[in-house]
Amino acid sequence: MELADFLPAYLTEVEELLGAANTHLLALETAAKQRSASPRSVRELFRALHTIKGLSAMIDVEPVVSIAHWMETSLRQADHAGGRLPETSIEPLMEGLRAIEQRVRQLALGKPISEVPKALLDRLEALDVHAASRAGRTAAVTLELEPAVASKLSASEQEQLMTGVQSGRRAIRLDYVPSAERASAGLTINSVRERLAQLAEIVKVVPLAGPTSGSGNLTFALLLLTNAEDSVLLGAVGGPPATLRVLASAPQSPPSASPADEPAPFEEESAAAEPRRGGVLRVEVSRLDDALERLAALVVNRSKLARAVATLTAMGAPTRELVQVLQENARQLRDLRAAILHLRMVRVGDVLERMPLLVRGLRRTTGKQVRLVMDVGDAELDKGVADRLLPALVHLVRNAVDHAVERPEERRAAGKPEEGVVRLSCHARTNGRLELKVSDDGRGVDAAAVAARAGVPVPTSPEELLELLCRPGLSTRVSADSTSGRGMGMDIVKRITVDQLGGELNLETQPGKGTTFSLCVPLTITILDAFVFECAALRYAVPVSAVEEIIEVDSTRIIRPPGLAEGGVTLVERRGHAVPLVPLERLLRRDAGREGPGSKAFVVRQRGAPVAFAVDRLLGQQEIVLRPLEDPLVQVPGVAGATDLGDGQPTLVLDLPTLSAAQGTLRQERQRGGVA
Question: Are the CB atoms for 70 and 96 separated by under 8 Å?
Fold first, then answer.
């Protein structure tokens, strides 16, 4: 067994712990500014760092161990103070977390681990106001350590052991020898750590290479502070060949120390040391992708089987029982699909957990007072969608802080509170879509200034203004800085939301009052329900979630306004309102060979307004597997991808609003070119 075997689990665990640590430290910063206590945040942050320290020691990442130790020390004192952390301690602790993240990232990339800057260690060590008083008391304690183990211990860890002995506990070395037999029985170094954490304070886990009493060549020496019995400790690691030895015991007459000076272990530490994620199984996303891919193959095969059964039925063959089996198979596949997609779902709150940290950094770099308010509830979406969507939300939040929210003096002059507010909210719709909003109470978008910057006429509607803001390369900044000014942000937001995810992007803005960007994206983009239809003798599909309604196109309800021949729009009556009616074959540039629009129409939302797209014939609804068109040479705006309906022929899956908008933009560019 090699230490590299533990690296993937280490990286996964530490990533989660760092996310939790950032969240709790931000909560402590808020409490410190309000001059209030937050005992729970102090203890949760301590436990996250303590676990990071133990895991890092296990794979010998000493820089991380050193940083985490001094951060722990400060938090122990905050716990003794009733959960109060001085505001001056926040920034050094933030620097410590960033330093840990950097070194974990280096480890994940296979790069050498950077040493900890001495200036950072000095700042963290300066937070320990009781170090000098403890030094005299611990000098009387002697630890019986072998050179191989002693060389792995930092001065701070040796001090931690001696301080624990002074407080009345025993310093123990417990050797655990891993093996294939123990692993098969569920006894690994990780489970051993979890068991011992309930019985002792784990100071360090030292991996030692060399022959063991079993058949392995690796031993984990666990250095503990505990009052538990030897037999209980040995039982926690599975008994022999594990061994135990006492490094130091409490002196008979320990020097008296006041609780304020002595960093005792956290109350209820043993109860809280139970596994954080009991009952949760971590699974690599690639394995879920593989399961989804196999499900996709089953969906395609079911479509082929349905076509074969339909052919047999048309020939007069007895297919009643076969049809029943096919229907049951369809139900089972839908249940399986729901189960796999549920496994792939992640909470939106977990996806956005680093947003408060982003805003905190922007506060420092811009000098603005900004508060982030998040209202995301328990909404979930597919992991693949979440990974694509996160960069778009980061750009929107960054733009809100950097461009929209004014500086404190400007807000005072405008009669606003000095602190600006950026809100991020989301809720799930009933049509399988998720709506997210990023809003601010800033200055709003100056349409005239944006138009002047782009050298175009002033937009007359929010839709035109949004199109202008999303123009590649456009920036309202004269020069770029570390936050913005490169003309890429809104272009990326539109490309992710509309082009990649087939969603919607809308804008509302009021000068002097604020701006709101609304994103509506599908919860999943791999296997979905779709309407299959025929248009100009070819089959197409459109996602069910994108369709608001299917209507019959009655020629008596069609309104043909004057100027139709010059590019006017046909209208159709829908519940007493006129809705634009667009023949889909015209967008696809195909001749339907008939007069007038088709008999059916899909009503979808385009920039918030309903638009009807006329088609020839509705063929039905079925599950499809969406395959994106990855080759740039065949990518077309408005074509979300392709699917196989069971006949082996590719069928295009259309994004109707994007297709119509792309054709409108192309038409305008041609008209401008003709005028020029």
Answer: yes
Residue owning tokens 């994940």: 108
Q: Give the span between the Cα atoms of 346 and 621, in whole angstroms.
A: 28
Distance CA 450, CA 490 (A): 13
> How far is Cα 49 from Cα 57, in angstroms, rounded to an integer?
12
If we measure between CA atoms, which residue out of 14, 35, 30, 48 comes closest to residue 90? 30
Cβ contacts of residue 514 below 8 Å, gap of 6+?
A: 404, 439, 440, 441, 442, 444
User: pLDDT class for 255, splitting at 50, 70, 90?
Assistant: very low
Contact 118, 67 (CB under 8 A): no
Quick one: tokens of 169?
């506990």
Average pLDDT, stretch 65-80? 82
CATH of domain 1-129: 1.20.120.160
Calpha distance 478→488 (Å, rounded): 14
Residue 162 to residue 146: CA distance in whole angstroms: 16
Q: Quick one: which of 409, 431, 671 has its CA closest to 529?
A: 431
DSSP string, 191-240: HHHHHHHTTSEEEEEEEEES--SSS-SEEEEEEEEE-S-HHHHHHHTTST
pLDDT at 3: 56
Q: How far apart are CA 491 and CA 620, in angstroms?
A: 36
DSSP 401: I
Q: Is the peptide bond before 580 cis (omega within 30 degrees of 0)?
A: no
Counting Cβ atoms within 10 Å, is residue 223 exposed (0-12), middle (13-18) or buried (19+)?
A: buried
182 beta partners: none
Q: Does residue 230 have a pLDDT over 80?
A: yes
Q: Which CATH class is domain 352-522?
A: alpha beta
Ordered DSSP codes for 402-417: IIISPPHHHHHHTT--
Cβ neighbour number for residue 386 with a 10 Å cutoff? 22
pLDDT tens per residue, range 92-149 = 888 888 999 988 888 888 888 888 888 888 888 787 655 444 444 455 567 778 887 8
What DSSP string describes 582-596? Answer: EEHHHHTT---SSSS
3-state helix, strand, coil split of the chain in percent (to 5) is 45, 20, 35
Look at residue 280 in the predicted model and tell me its pLDDT: 65
CB 657 within 8 A of CB 640: no
In the block, which residue shows the tokens 């010998």? 60
* 644 close to 650: Cβ distance less than 8 angstroms: yes
**Which residue would you say has higher pLDDT here, 117 or 4?**
117
- Is-above-0.85 flag for pTM? no
pLDDT of residue 277: 45
How confident is the model over 172-227, as pLDDT tens digits? Answer: 888 888 887 777 777 888 888 888 888 888 888 888 877 766 666 788 888 888 88
Q: What is the CATH number of domain 527-675?
A: 2.40.50.180
Tens-place pLDDT, residues 429-477: 766 788 899 999 999 998 888 888 888 888 888 888 888 888 887 766 5
Q: What is the dihedral of CA 299, 304, 306, 307, to 10 degrees?
A: 150
